[in-house]
Automatic annotation (TrEMBL):
UniProt-recorded name of the protein: GlsB/YeaQ/YmgE family stress response membrane protein
Compartment(s) of residence: Cell membrane
Residues passing through the membrane, by range: 12-33, 39-59
Lineage: superkingdom: Bacteria
Similarity field: Belongs to the UPF0410 family.
Length: 63
């Protein structure tokens, strides 16, 4: 999704994934999906992580 070198480190990457999974579970609840386990949980976690990554990109936009 984001080509190039990302200097956020492995700890921040783990934190981003955890926050993304939480955001994804909130999003699943908003659309009424049962994403407590399995494939649906994985899909919503990835979507949540992508949302967090985009927000992080906007906040740290280096020109």
């Amino acid at each position: 999704m984001k080509p190039g070198n990302d200097s956020m480190g492995w700890i921040f990457t783990i934190i981003l994934g955890i926050v993304g999974a939480y955001i994804g579970s909130l999003l699943a609840g908003l659309v009424g999906a049962n994403a407590t386990a399995g494939f649906a949980y994985w899909v919503f976690s990835v979507i949540g992580a992508m949302i967090v990554l985009v927000i992080y990109g906007f906040l740290t936009n280096k020109k």
